[in-house]
Amino acid sequence: MKPVVAIAVVLGLLATSVVAAPTAGRALPAPVDTATAQTYLGELKVAADSNDPAYSRKLFPTWDKIDGTCNTRDEVMKRDGTNVVTGSNCIATSGNWISPYDNATWTEERSLDIDHLVPLKEAWLSGARDWTTKQREAFANDLVRPQLVAVTSKVNRSKGDKDPAQWLPPLTSFQCTYTKAWIEVKHYYALSVDPKEKDALTSILTKC
């Protein structure tokens, strides 16, 4: 390679960051197995939801800075895609993503939302109203548990703050993974389940 060309290549690499993420995890950390999920579900407190005091999204700070200019959202976009190219601000400019909720494929970051698998309002109704702001911030930016996932924007908005008794991913083959992830997150954060929610989770697990 000629010196001038080599310099140009180096400068090009410095201008953008290319991150290839593995596809095996299918967009979020693998949740616990079915047997563990059943055990966890049995340990969850069953209680009616409460919205007193009233929920506000502002009570759950997002998105935290993770590394340099990269925040939690940026990290999920890089993790959940392949051949992801980011600008100097860490925002993805291109890549390939598969939304696990509907199996749709995307090449533009703006086509996806980052879903809180257990929605922030659902967490509030089932116990997070008693947390500190720091605890709610940790929940809203959790990259360790299967709680954050890049999904088709339209599907995410149809979900809203519904629990599994009211909404499940339209891709049937992902519903078991979704259910086990839901239970794992609720168990880790000691959140309650309401009666209909528990019935739905129990029913889905019998098919996993």
TrEMBL record:
Statement: the UniProt record of this protein carries the keyword Signal: yes
Signal peptide: 1-20
Keyword annotations from UniProtKB, A to Z: Signal
Highest taxon listed in the record's lineage: Eukaryota
Residue stretches in coiled coil: none
Transmembrane segments: none
Residue ranges of every copy of the GmrSD restriction endonucleases C-terminal domain listed in the record: 105-202
Keyword Lipid metabolism in annotation: no
Name assigned to this protein: GmrSD restriction endonucleases C-terminal domain-containing protein
Native organism taxonomy: Eukaryota, Fungi, Dikarya, Basidiomycota, Agaricomycotina
